[in-house]
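User: Design a sequence. Structure:
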């Protein structure tokens, strides 16, 4: 019996030593997770449509706003704050005149998506992104490269102005 207790104590002590020497979150020798989204969620192009967006001025952007199943459910039910796991994607394109359509209409009135400009994401994780209102923000160039921390810095302060809608600008257009 004493040998069993002795060996159990040895195993527990070894496990304690191993656990205390492995990397734990927040230690100086481990890279912290970025405070923004650095990889595009898989399957986002198959998500459902939430709304469209047109931003004039220097952006001259036409966008499709999509949501994963969690976000769509929250939008449809009017759930605020959005539940963790909600992801919203905004696919942006140049707002371009469509010469072929305009030829048929006989005047310049048709505009369609031109070349892609960027893709943006909002990912709801109230623990991981607690410092930014529970949302992780992501911006990817047309070639799929993520923006850096300096570029992402103004996202939260801008979205924080939409606190009444859990930092989300886009409304559901059923």
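Assistant: Done.
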């Amino acid at each position: 019996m004493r040998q069993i207790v002795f060996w159990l104590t040895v195993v527990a002590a070894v496990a304690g030593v191993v656990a205390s020497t492995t990397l734990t979150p927040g230690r100086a020798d481990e890279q912290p997770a970025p405070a923004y989204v650095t990889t595009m969620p898989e399957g986002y192009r198959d998500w459902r449509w939430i709304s469209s967006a047109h931003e004039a001025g220097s952006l001259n952007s036409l966008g499709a706003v999509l949501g994963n199943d969690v976000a769509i459910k929250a939008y449809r039910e009017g759930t605020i704050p959005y539940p963790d796991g909600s992801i919203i994607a905004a696919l942006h394109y140049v707002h371009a005149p469509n010469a072929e359509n305009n030829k048929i209409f006989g005047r310049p009135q048709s505009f369609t998506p031109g070349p892609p400009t960027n893709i943006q994401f909002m990912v709801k994780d109230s623990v991981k992104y607690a410092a930014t209102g529970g949302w992780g923000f992501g911006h990817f160039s047309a070639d799929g490269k993520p923006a850096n921390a300096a570029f992402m810095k103004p996202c939260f302060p801008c979205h924080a102005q939409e606190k009444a809608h859990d930092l989300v600008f886009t409304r559901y257009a059923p």
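Confidence is low (pLDDT under 50) at residues 4-29. The first helix runs from residue 2 to 21.
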